[in-house]
Here is the input.
Amino acid sequence: MSAPSTWRQFDTTHVWHPYTQHGLPRAQVPIVRAEGAYLFDADGRPILDAISSWWVTTHGHAHPEIATAIADQAGRLEQVIFAGFTHEPAAMLAAELVRVLPSGLEKIFFSDDGSTAVEVSVKMALQYWANRGTPRPLVAALTNAYHGDTFGAMSLSGRGVFTKPFDAHLFEVARLPDPTEGDVVSAFAALIDTRGSELAALVVEPLLLGAGGMRVWEPSALRGLHDLAKAAGVLLIADEVLTGFGRTGPLFASGGAGITPDIVCLSKGLTGGFLPLGVTGCTNEIFEGFLSGDRTKTLFHGHSFTANPIACAAARASLALFTEECDVRRREIERVHVSQLDELRNLPVVRRPRVLGTVAAFDFGQEDADYLNPIGPRLGAYALDRGVLLRPLGNTVYILPPYCITASELVRIYEVIRTFAEGA
Ligand code: PLP
Here is the structure.
């Protein structure tokens, strides 16, 4: 192994980091290992991971059972082309996912990450209608949505600072109101009245608009959208890349709200946060819309690492850890969030405190939510100095911890936020 001073220098010289303005003075924190809820930097200093390392770590860092499953699989079958070939980890994972997904989602298409899972979902929906000979070119999505950084996913996402340089190249989307701000169900009904026959699908992040500001919306609105979509024959795509695998309480937000979407997108927590893997699940009806003797009706989509066996083995090991004990831990996180936010809410800078399962958030200060608000980097740096990893979305502060976090560790995160807020 090279000394941290050497590889840190190579990082500075050669690496371009994501969502990072390298023109501003901010060093990358060198992490050498991780365990449970903690990352450890090159000096051995523990950093409590309050955001599950971009929302992916579910059971905890370096969980031994997932690590062992990965090592076992890597020594047996590390990779094989998934067109024309198959393997046990993918087939077993598909069956295990179908067992826990909202009932009716029967087919699993693998890809690489959240963005590709979303890309596949939209291609599935558009081609489903095209294959039937009744093309529907339009897709609807929510204001303040975030679905990823590839072009299709950016098209579906709300327009803003992330998409601005590319806006001219993004496809048309029928935009519905943010359900936390407007009557999304009536707006969808009106859209169906005017353009229903053009509408292939509606894409939503069920109950939680994540990167758009951790905005929590009502299950009744989700059910309203679902019922309208069903009646109009519009496909409902649930992007559960963030909300899947227990984040919002139940294993899947859509299932918890009592609906089955036509298509679901999964990633992030799918492998417990160990390896990249995406899944697009769909109903048999959609799958059957591609069955034909005509090869042009094939879903022409695949990635080099589709259904990578090691990633599938990690996902199977992670899924097996969703026991009753894990449910108890998630409920405990929610309980601590509610009581801690209740104490914070008296501070004048704490606005719109909200909790959904293991996710807690509030808006800092009186300004509207804004990703470029400097309070985010300031709080992030303040927390890091105190051994806590927070990465606010501008002035939206959120806590989204791995499920292994203890109540006292969670309280410590709130104490850091409180001292910052009191000094602000
Ligand atoms: N969809 C949602 C709801 C997300 O929150 C994200 C990422 O944050 C994505 C899609 C994109 O996932 P990825 O970053 O793995 O491409």
Remarks:
- The mean pLDDT is 97.
